[in-house]
Amino acid sequence: MARGVRRRLRRLSEAPVPESAGRLVPAPVFVISSVRSGSTLLRVLLNSHPQIRAPHEMHLRTLSVGLDKPYTKKAMTELGLDQRELEYLLWDRILHRELVRSGKRIIVDKTPGNAGSWERLHEGWPKARYIFLLRHPASMVSSLINNRPDRDPDATVREVLGYVEGVQAARDALDGLTVRYEELTERPEDVTREICAHLRVPWTARMLDYRKGDHGPFVPSIGDWSENIKSGKVQKARPLPEPEEVPEALRGITHSWGYRC
Fold first, then answer.
1. Residues 6+ away with beta carbon under 8 Å from 256
2. pLDDT (tens digit per residue) in 4-17
3. Which of 109, 135, 184, 208 is 20 to 30 Å from the Cα of 237, by its Cα?
């Protein structure tokens, strides 16, 4: 674990926890992943489980609380609440509301932006569980460009690099289960069984036929909207990029994740 990450985690663990920090959802599951990593596929497979609610991307980190007047801040301070804790209470209430609506007992948030906000998630939910979803970094670049051919290739590489570095930082600092997209598409039963064991729920074959579930709309900004995900079937991953096709900026993380480059 990097020294800077250890210091940040130590500060979080040593920070006083207000009495109000008790969560309605004490142990949510957060998927830490990049964009175009197969997180929507993972979501619908999990959401097909009778005990797991995995809604569309929730973007909790972008929901903020405003203390618009000096007396508002003073009042909240007297209650032992600062802006960060107020935001956690808001996020927690949203998670709880979704769980109650679903009638299930485990909630999963798979927003890719969590890769850059995992420290806040750990601070707000010390008992949270994590799934780290990996995919070949160059495949994620290709997927983004295929989806929008007008993208600048260099900017797309930098975007993916930011995500995968966040994923790796979280892996270095937190306990969790690592899942590879390529293995999920090649051996969906084996991988979903491993995930169920990690989440301590029984595996069910219902997870492999997600056409039968209500997963909400497949639309931009809250998940994948491609024809593959709409098909209701696990589609086999495209062949891995050749080593010479991996952009220079991504070679280090590609190698450390065990892919040829």
1. 168
2. 666 666 665 555 55
3. 109
